[in-house]
């Protein structure tokens, strides 16, 4: 399996040279920016998107909507972690060397990569978070998926992955996030709902701006009623 896409005439290798060739023509400062973005920047941006989404869903819609959305947000990083674990035996089975080990003339922006190339951990993790976030909130999910696509481009630009490494990562992250989502949400939603009913941790799910009647309804608290003395006064 190590010979996967090792032929220099394959579309995979040709696209690798085309995209990585942009790094050769770019100024040094731009390559340094792309190195940071591809290694850390996009993943940090995705964390910010998740936090932004969490802040938003706590303040909008009904309490049940917030519970469902927050459960989806919790699932997004869990899906990324599971996808990375699934990738461990895949890498060991395929045993595909990094592209710069088999092909000359590549502009490698990150040194010291000694593990196998297929599939890309960065692409897997980014897409799993993006798709998991899409399950929770469509608009924020689309933004995260866009960042995941940019992450895949950066990995090829940096010369550390073949395009098919990235595509494989996208497929793995998407499969884990979608196929396990029903089971994960079935387990996470009751837990998040219980947190929402807690006085101490409830704000993690719903902001204090949630109307009192909505919180009472969620906690099955009956609406306050006037006693007989108050009824006489009201009459």
How many beta-strand segments? Answer: 0
Q: How far is it from the N-terminal to the C-terminal residue, by CA?
A: 85 Å
Rg from C-alpha positions? 24 Å
The arrangement of helices and strands along the chain is HHHHHHHHHH
Unreliable parts: 212-235
Strand content: under 5%
The helix content, as a percent range, equals 55-70%
Can you count the helices? 10
Sheet/helix structural class: mainly alpha
Largest sheet: none
Mean pLDDT: 82
Shape: elongated
Overall description:
This protein is mainly alpha-helical. About 70% of the residues lie in helices and about 0% in strands. The chain is elongated.
List the helices and strands and how they pair.
Layout: H1 11-25, H2 28-57, H3 63-94, H4 99-102, H5 121-136, H6 138-157, H7 163-179, H8 181-196, H9 212-218, H10 228-234
Helix pairs in contact: 2-3, 2-5, 2-6, 3-5, 3-7, 3-8, 5-6, 5-7, 6-7
Features:
0% strand, disordered C terminus, mainly alpha, 235 residues
Question: Summed up, what is this model?
Answer:
The chain is mostly helical and 235 residues long.
């Amino acid at each position: 399996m190590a010979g996967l896409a090792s032929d220099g005439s394959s579309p995979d290798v040709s696209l690798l040279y085309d995209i990585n060739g942009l790094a050769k023509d770019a100024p040094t400062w731009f390559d340094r920016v792309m190195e940071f973005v591809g290694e850390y920047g996009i993943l940090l941006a995705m964390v910010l998107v998740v936090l932004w989404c969490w802040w938003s869903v706590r303040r909008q819609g009904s309490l049940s909507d917030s519970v469902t959305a927050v459960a989806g947000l919790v699932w997004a990083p869990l899906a990324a972690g599971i996808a990375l674990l699934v990738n461990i035996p895949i890498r060991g089975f395929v045993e595909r060397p990094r592209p710069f080990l088999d092909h000359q003339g590549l502009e490698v922006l990150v040194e010291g990569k000694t593990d196998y190339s297929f599939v890309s951990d960065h692409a897997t993790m980014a897409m799993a978070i993006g798709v998991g976030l899409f399950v929770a909130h469509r608009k924020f999910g689309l933004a995260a998926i866009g960042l995941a696509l940019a992450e895949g481009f950066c990995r090829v630009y940096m010369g550390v992955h073949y395009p098919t490494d990235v595509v494989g990562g996208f497929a793995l992250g998407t499969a884990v996030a979608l196929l396990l989502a029903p089971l994960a949400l079935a387990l996470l939603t009751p837990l998040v709902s219980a947190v929402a009913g807690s006085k101490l941790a409830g704000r993690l799910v719903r902001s204090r701006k949630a109307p009192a009647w909505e919180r009472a309804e969620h906690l099955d608290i009956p609406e306050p009623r006037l006693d007989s003395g108050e009824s006489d006064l009201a009459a």
